[in-house]
C-alpha cells in the first residue's frame, strides 16, 4: 500500500503533462452532449412547400394559411407547373409539393370529396412519412374546423366535404429507410477512414525516430506530401468502389445519376479528408493524439451536422451555420442526389464547388504544416 501513493501521483502527473490527451478527454464529453442534445431532433419543424394553386379562390388561400399557421410549414415557391415543382424537389428547395385542383372552393361548398395532390421528396424516408402525416392531418383539421364551421353557421346540414391527400412519393417510392441511410454511411465511413489512416503517417515517423530519413531526403515538401497521400488515395478509392457496389447490390439502392460525376466528387472528397488527416498528423506528432483528434473532427460533425440522419433545418441556427464547414454535409447531398434523384452538376454545382474548396484548402494547409514539421 505504501507504493500506491507514488504510483497514483506518477500517473496523475503523466495525465496533466499530456495536455492534448487531457483536453480531448475533458472537452469531448461536453461536445458530445451539446451536439447530440441539439442535433438529435425527430420533430418535424420545417417543411418547405412548393404550391400550385389552380383554383385561385379564397378557400385555397385559407387552406394555406391554415397549413402554415403553426410555423412548421413554409411556402417557399409557387411554380407554374409540375415540371417546375419537380425541379424544386430535385434541388431540395422544397420537400413537399401541394397542387390545389381547379374547382376546389366549389367542391367544398357542395360537400364533395376534394382531392389535393401532395408530391413528396422521399429521399429521406423518415422525414417524408412525418411530413405527409403532418400535411394530411392539417387538411383534415381544416375541413373540421374551418369549412364545417362555416357551413354550420350558414345553417346548412348536408354532408360535410372531405379533403383527401393524394400522395405521390418521388425518389424513394417505397419509403425504404435503407435507401436513405446507406448512401450517407458511404460518406461517414469514407471521411472517418481517410482521415484516420493519414493521421498516423507523419506521427508514426516521429515516434519511431525515422523522421531524420525524411529530413535528409532531397525531395521537396509538397512532393513528400504527395508521396504520403498517393497510397492512401488508392486505398480510399478501392474502399469507395467496394461500398458503392455493396450499397447497390446488397441493399438495392439505385444509382440513377452519372457515375463520372460521382467519381470526381468522391476523388475530391477523399483528397480533402486525407489531407486533413495529414495535417493533424504533422501538427500533433503523436499517433494517439492525432487519432483522437481525427475522430473528434470527422466522426461527430459528419454524423450530426451533415444531414446524414437528422435534418439540418431542424437544428438551432448556430449549428446550421457550423454545418457550413462540415464537408460531409455537401458530399451527403451529392451521393444521395446521384443515387436517388439522378441529378448531376447542373443541380449539385454548389456542393461540387464546396468539395473543390475543401480539397484545395486542406492540401494547402497540409503542405504548409508538413513543411514546418520538416524544418
What do you see in this structure?
With 375 residues, the chain is of the alpha/beta class. The longest helix is centred in the last third of the chain and has 30 residues, at 345-374. It is built from 15 helices and 5 strands. The radius of gyration is 27 Å and the shape is elongated. It has helices at 4-17, 19-39, 58-67, 82-91, 104-109, 125-153, 177-198, 201-207, 211-215, 221-249, 259-284, 287-304, 317-322, 327-341, 345-374, and strands spanning 47-53, 73-77, 96-100, 113-121, 162-170. The model has no long low-confidence stretch (mean pLDDT 79). Helix 11 runs antiparallel to helix 12 and helix 11 (259-284) packs antiparallel against helix 14. The protein has a 5-stranded mixed sheet, with helices on both faces.
Short descriptors:
alpha/beta
Give the structure's gist in a few sentences:
With about 375 residues, the chain is an alpha/beta fold. The chain is built from 15 helices and five strands.
Mean of residue pLDDT values: 79
Biggest pleated-sheet summary: 5 strands, mixed
Please count the helical segments: 15
Q: What is the molecular shape? A: elongated
Q: Quote the beta fraction.
A: 5-15%
Quote the distance from N terminus to C terminus.
48 Å
Helical amount among residues, as a percent range? 55-70%
Task: Look at the helices and sheets and give the structural class.
Answer: alpha/beta
Helix-strand string: HHEHEHEHEHEHHHHHHHHH
Gyration radius, rounded: 27 Å
Strand neighbour order, sheet with most strands:
2-1-3-4-5
Note poorly predicted spans: none
Count of extended strands: 5
